[in-house]
């Protein structure tokens, strides 16, 4: 005999939530077969039958508002949700630099004192990597809408906070962020496995399947479930994670890497592992589908350094995979990887290529824009502690490209070059009114003529261009200019909006 489902609304719909304004709203849940569900908010009503134990109502668009109440009824049951805001909702995805809590941010103390804002809300999807994991530990610290107050601020994604704070200030609307992230996660885990079934993306599936061949499943499961770090249900209680996120000295890092806790944490990925292909797409991202959103913000890529040459294809497929899930070409804003050299076993040697692959995506996929933070890295920490520029630059992209404000919101980007006898004129997009070189010289700029390093005698900044003067350019016949084309550097060239010049590589002539 079939068991009647209890009447309920999905867990994303709770007190203090933020609903997306000016778009049809999807609200869903479960209920007894054959019953009808009715929903009321802001003077609007929606109805839907329960079919195979599930119901979904698509409500006509709501206007910006505060303090709304939603009433949902089914049979004799009623659910009332209060403290609802109607404004802008974005999903924030990625790995640890998106997950990075205000608890670790350099402005933490100031924010805890002055950063409260009741018009900002944050929902963190519980970090679950397999079916039933949430029943094996207490995940009550996540999976509800937090109000941005003194008690909850530490749990906000720092990038998400700065992003939503600027949007709230400039658009004068409430903003909600749905966090969907996991430290150390490669892009493949955030994609449906079917999105990886084409060359060369199949390398992620092939490597995973090959690893399974040597895995003792019984031993693997026992070992995996016996490690408390595999249950990310209270991240602040994870002493190792806390040490890593707050930052370590060189000595502390060396000691940590020599400890059993470190050497034992890299087993082959198995069917419970959060980094396996499709794992977090299935068990985290799909929990947010089809919640009505304005768009996505994304900060990830560090964990794709093993196959950097296909990262543009991975990102392109990931974006289409997410848009397919929502059945909408939602805006996708993301962060180009920060300057970085080494941290624990990680090295930044593949970052120039990864950054270039990220740049390519911003030119080949519609409604996709990239923020540069090449002035905001840390040489020996993969987690920059200054997240304000990250969130605010993403917000500027949203304001300019998504909300239609007439502002300079993109970083300068190389377009073309003119080679003269004693000069190279570099032309850029997004630098009207000229560029500002902060300091005595342009750091991160390298020029070679016939393979030999040359220091420009003078650099002149103009409208959408830089002119490099040096003797012998015309005679050299061939040359090369690289800007920020290395693992770690400190960019000091900005446009009038204070946005840093993106990395680029340009060469001319023949060998």
Structure description:
The protein is of the alpha+beta class. Helix content is 23%, strand content 27%. The protein has 13 helices and 26 strands. The longest helix has 16 residues. The chain is globular. The N and C termini lie far apart (78 Å). The strands form six sheets. Strands 2, 4, 5, 7, 8, 9, 10, 11, 12, 13 and 16 form an eleven-stranded mixed beta sheet that branches. A four-stranded antiparallel beta sheet has the order 17-18-23-22, with no helix packed on it. The protein has a four-stranded antiparallel beta sheet with strand order 21-20-24-26, with no helix packed on it. The model has no long low-confidence stretch (mean pLDDT 95).
């Amino acid at each position: 005999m079939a068991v009647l489902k209890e009447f309920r609304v999905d867990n994303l719909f709770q007190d203090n939530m933020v609903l997306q304004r000016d778009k049809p709203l999807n609200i869903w849940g479960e209920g007894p077969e054959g019953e009808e569900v009715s929903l009321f908010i802001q003077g609007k009503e929606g109805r839907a039958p329960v079919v195979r134990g599930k119901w979904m109502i698509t409500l006509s668009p709501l206007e910006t508002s505060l303090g709304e109440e939603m009433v949902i009824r089914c049979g004799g049951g009623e659910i009332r949700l209060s403290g609802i805001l109607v404004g802008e909702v974005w999903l924030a995805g990625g790995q640890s630099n998106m997950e990075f809590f205000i608890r670790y941010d350099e402005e933490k103390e100031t924010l805890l004192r002055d950063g409260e804002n009741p018009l900002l809300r944050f929902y963190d999807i519980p970090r679950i990597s397999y079916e039933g994991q949430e029943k094996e530990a207490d995940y009550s610290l996540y999976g509800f809408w937090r109000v941005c107050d003194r008690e909850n601020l530490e749990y906000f994604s720092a990038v998400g906070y700065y992003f939503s704070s600027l949007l709230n200030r400039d658009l004068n609307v409430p903003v909600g962020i749905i966090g969907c992230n996991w430290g150390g996660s490669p892009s493949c885990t955030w994609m449906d496995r079917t999105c990886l079934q084409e060359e060369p993306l199949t390398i992620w599936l092939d490597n995973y399947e090959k690893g399974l061949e040597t895995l003792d499943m019984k031993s693997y499961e026992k070992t995996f479930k016996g490690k408390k770090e595999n249950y990310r249900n209270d991240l602040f209680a994870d002493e190792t994670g806390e040490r890593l996120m707050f930052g370590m000295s060189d000595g502390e890092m060396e000691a940590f890497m020599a400890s059993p806790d470190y050497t034992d944490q890299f087993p082959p990925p198995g069917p419970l592992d959060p980094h396996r292909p499709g794992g977090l797409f299935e068990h985290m991202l799909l929990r947010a589908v089809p919640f009505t959103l304005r768009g996505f913000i994304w900060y990830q890529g560090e964990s794709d350094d093993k196959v950097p040459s296909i990262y543009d294809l991975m990102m392109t497929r990931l974006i289409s995979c997410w848009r397919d899930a929502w059945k909408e070409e939602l805006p996708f804003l993301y962060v180009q990887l920060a300057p970085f050299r080494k941290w624990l076993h990680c090295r930044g040697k593949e970052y120039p290529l990864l950054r270039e692959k990220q740049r390519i995506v911003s030119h080949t996929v519609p409604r996709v824009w990239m923020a540069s933070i090449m002035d905001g890295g840390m040489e020996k920490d993969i987690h920059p502690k200054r997240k304000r520029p990250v969130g605010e630059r993403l917000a500027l992209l949203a304001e300019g490209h998504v909300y239609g404000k007439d502002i300079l919101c993109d970083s300068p980007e190389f377009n073309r070059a003119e080679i003269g006898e004693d000069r190279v004129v570099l032309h850029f997009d997004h630098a009207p009114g000229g560029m500002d070189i902060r300091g005595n010289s342009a750091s991160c700029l390298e020029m070679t003529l016939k393979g030999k390093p040359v220091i420009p005698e003078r650099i002149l900044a103009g409208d959408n261009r830089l002119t490099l003067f040096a003797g012998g350019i015309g005679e050299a016949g061939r040359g090369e200019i690289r800007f920020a084309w290395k693992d770690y550097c400190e960019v000091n060239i900005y446009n009038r909006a204070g946005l840093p010049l993106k990395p680029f590589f340009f060469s001319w002539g023949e060998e």
